[in-house]
Design a protein that fits this description.
The protein has 228 residues and is α+β, with helices and mostly antiparallel strands. Helices cover 46% and strands 16% of the residues. The chain folds into three domains: 19-97, no CATH class; 117-166, no CATH class; 173-226, no CATH class. The protein has nine helices and seven strands; from the N terminus they run ββαβββαββααααααα. Strands 3-4-5 form a three-stranded antiparallel β-sheet.
Amino acid sequence: MKSTIAKKTEGYGYKYTELADINKYCEDNGIRYYQEVETSEINQKDYIITYIEKGDKVEKHRGCQIVEAVLQGIKNPVQEYGSSLTYCRRYSLLMALGLATEDDDGASLTVKKEATKEDADKWSFTFGKYKGKTMNEVIQEDSNYMKWFLDTKASEYDIKCYELLTGEKLPTEEESKQRLELMAKLNELVEETECDYEALKRHYKVSSNNEMTIAQLQEAISTLEKRL
């Protein structure tokens, strides 16, 4: 399968790949997809979700967060939102297909690079108050900022670098959603069964159900359901 697409369209001093060119790539390689906007239950932000059809299965990929766009010389909010949406659709599709843009003069798309420990050690912020600092430094200095970055701006590559640096496996979107649902269910059962919540926390050696693993939440729910 061909893995490169030329960047043909000129922007303000850069080149980028049109969505139509990516669609042509998909057609040439027999790839079918569709996209939608989904609001994350974790941070209430809107993301582009890309579904790739593979035989009788459909793969779901969470892509870019839709952010406010500011277009040079344009103050039309609808047009600005449309520009942001198109940008997010384009790069979310590239992510879902396992393709990534090179530098502007690369004029192509290449197979997405897998992060290594060496990459993680060298990773540094290119924006914000920690611009120029490595991810490892920010992890040590400001865990709240790091959490914000991971929740709102981090790509799959960024998340992999974080995991390599910390040894921590971050939950997927589906796992986070499942955890929230289980926590809500457990809270309901605690009230319905008049369970001794403090005793339950002591049993699992946690200070709140937020610290419980998915397996522990499921076990506690199963135990309380038997009391109904």
